Amino acid sequence: MIRTALEACTESKLYIAMNLSFACSLRLGEILGLTWSNVHMTDADIMADNAFVYIDKELTRATLHAIEALGKKEIFHIFEPMKRDASTRLILKTTKTKSSVRKVWLPKTVAYILREWKKSQDELRKFYVREYEEHDLVISLPKGTPCDGRLIEESFQALRTKAGLPRVVFHSLRHSSTTYKLKLNHGDLKATQGDTGHAEIDMITKVYAHILDEDRKINAQKFETAFYSNPDLRAVKPPETPESVLELDHLIEQLRRSPGLKKTVSQLVAANEFN
């Protein structure tokens, strides 16, 4: 379905965002806050599978009160609003958690897609000249200004309708990415957590437990093939419990359930001791 969505996508910013979300497990705010200085994709990097993005900030919309509460240490840049009296601002800030700061390797194809996107951005920079705002953002509007997450969400919903895809949101790509990686790496939680930036590994085990269970079922199947079927042990029966043990267990259970029987047995035992 993701391949179908990418093939049907004709909006450049959305296409880049979708690839970064699915291939790199990035949150939308991390994608929109990614700067070119944090994208490493030289020819040598790509050929050696060393192309990567470094995530250390995110783009978000915040109220003036929230901005004041965050303080200067957490904010890299506050963008000027279209309307001067706007009560919110787009800001470039530190990531959600410390664990969200991470290095994520790029598949070769995604690296090449980003290089082509960079070329088209450079052409726009030359076209607009003085009107172009230089913020070094990987995903920006034609004049270099930041792209609000709402625009990507709206474009994604339009694509979903156009391509006849299920009713999902953009963030579903990140979930699909995590699921796909767990399947590819056979449940390697640590490696997957390194890409997703989850603060706790338990978050992955709780949300994606069904994927891990599927792999564990496969382990059982492999165990059957590797051990129990060679030689064939399916005809082997477990050892039978001795009848005496079963009879004793049965008697104890009957005594526990019947106080009257327990009293009678006690009397018989006592009478036997005196004979």
Contiguous helical run count: 13
Structural class: mainly alpha
Biggest sheet, open or closed, and with what strands and sense?
Answer: 3 strands, antiparallel
Shape: elongated
- Weakly predicted, low-confidence segments: none
CATH architecture of the domain at 2-56 and 95-165: Orthogonal Bundle
Descriptive report:
The protein is mostly helical. Among the domains are: 2-56 and 95-165, Orthogonal Bundle (hpI Integrase, Chain A); 243-274. The chain is built from 13 helices and six strands. It has helices at 2-8, 12-24, 28-32, 43-47, 64-70, 108-128, 149-163, 172-184, 189-196, 201-207, 209-228, 243-257, 259-274; strands at residues 39-40, 52-55, 57-63, 75-78, 88-94, 102-105. The strands form two sheets. The protein has a three-stranded antiparallel β-sheet with strand order 1-2-6, with no helix packed on it. The chain has a three-stranded antiparallel β-sheet with strand order 3-5-4. Helix 2 packs antiparallel against helix 6 (108-128) and helix 12 crosses helix 13. It is elongated, with a radius of gyration of 31 Å.
